[in-house]
Model the fold of this input.
Amino acid sequence: MCCDSKRRFLLLYATQKGQAKAIAEEIWQQAGAHGLEADMHCISEMDKYNLETEKDPVVIVISTTGTGDPPDTARKFVKKIQDKTLPPDHFAHLQYGLLGLGDSEYMFFCNGGRTVDRRLQELGAQHFYDTGLADDCVGLELVVDPWIDGLWLALKEALLLQKEKEGMNNVVDAVSSSLSPAAHVVHELNLSSEVQNLKLEDEGARSSDVLSQKLDDINLVAPARDTEPSLVHSVPPVSQSALNIPALPPEYIEVQFQDTQGENPHLSSLISEETTFEVPVTKAVQLTREDAIKTALLLELDVADTVFDYQPGDAFCVICPNNVNEVEELLHILGLSEKGDDFVCVKVKQGTKKKGASRPQHIPERSTLKFILTWCLEIRAIPKKAFLRALVECTSDAGEKRRLQELCSRQGASDYTHFIRDSNVCLLDLLHAFPSCKPSLSLLIEHLPKLQARSYSVSSSNLYQPGRLRFVFNVVEFPAGPSRPVSRKGVCTGWLAELVAPLLHPSKTTLDTKGESSSTEKISIFPRPNNAFHLPTDPSVPFMMVGPGTGISPFIGFLQHRQKLREQNTDWEFGETWLFFGCRHQDRDYLFKQLRCFLENGTLTHLKVCFSRDSSTAEVAAPKYVQDILRLYAKEVARVLLKERGYFYVCGDKKHMADDVSDAVVDILSMEMEGDKLEAMKILAMLREAKRYLQDVWS
Done:
């Protein structure tokens, strides 16, 4: 290995969107200041490390994707360690510490990390440092920062013990000399998703990897008169504090403009492992009335001439571009408006201090500048603290410079969460708020993540409509606010809405294929199969579906498929089906009024609907939300789940619906079993484990 074996540790990361890699790179950068060297690799690069023979401590940073799955880059690794023929002492020699990343908005929080952690333990590996579980819902840094702070002492102790075992006394003396007197005290970390109990204190300058920004080293502007902090200014104590800010990330990208012409790469080259399909949009229908609070669209794609295959309940991804006006605006701010169509060559900067620096896989070696900003970089991404730190160096105004330092500092953690993270601020918002900040193109390529394809649930059945794929979505709106000068639409939903505008037939909510319009518009898609969210394999098993708003989308596919199965197999026994649907107004956003067709032909046994914003003159108030209707049918819910071993599907918003539905089911089970709530929660957990309580949710 390239590292000094006396103080080396192996650093592995498994990332889906780049966050785990960024954190691993931060650990790598800090290691040198602690007299350690990290041998860093993506966990998929199994030819570059070998855990079977690894003697040094191992640090693993791993994210979670999908419904609790390890990231794509960890699939082969997880498959390898889950080999049931491996003996229980297979990794008895291994010492490791693991940092899991997740989002408690979703079920199976940090399950990617938990899966690897649990399996390593089963195979005899030992923790040299407690596992950290960071929650993106409230801010990864609340766990990540203190976890990294405590890592160095734990690593040195692990290396010390390792060398003692090997009888290398000379190395023991060397490592001991770098330890504090408290080195042999037992240090315990209790890092979990319950970050609200974690309090970060101002500890001053704590280690050499942190740049301590003294008040007398910077030019402060006059204090703002406002007593409330905002994105662009602070108040005491932050405005008067010495700041602990991250070390400046090393530059590693060089962009060269070229005079030659050519063609941009095909979009399929942007997707590393998937097969992409360019398919025409054959139909677009607006499902909501013009005065509805949200605009819901149904799109139909022609997949007949492809090998794209799907089941009802599956998802697929749409490759989308950034908004053309935002790209032009960014080019203008960068002073590159005249060079958007020029070809550039992206290379690793010679002499960079970044370990293992390489051109990001999502950036073509040669393309136009506009192509990179349109199809490759997530310009709407919420800037990470490392990016803010780098932007400090591109800012000329002293006051603006100080505020950016505050926002990336430990002392400004609360401001960062409130004014950047929770406000969904993007690079353009920052550049408007801090006009003296003029970053280079190479800096953007270094710090902006890959523009991710957007995932949507399939809302059709290939059995019902061969060669057609439908999906439903709300056009996402981000209103203007204190940190965002203009309103914006979702990157993908806004693009799709603009793309299909000529095809739209407002308020036509037909489910058949009549009234198609010819279209030359095409979009690029690739499959994202769902391993669990499918109809029961036994058609006689009853099931219940809960899908308010666009959460109804996959259930349309379920019902279409079920209808065809009934038509083709008249001798089969089919279990009863329930659908609980809710929306705001019956006359504005009842997305599929033709659900009654399924009811009339027997495909759907029970349809229960509610309208949360419609006024009622009835003496007994009508249920407002789907969880309220569920409680009205408590006995039926308990019967289907407990006595008839049925299935329960939930699709839609996680925060404001799925959790409430879960709570309602717990209450129902508790009441019908005449047991306590804890017992009901255990039953629900067992249903989840048996994949009979299934969720397809988003935040």
In short: The longest strand covers residues 277-286.
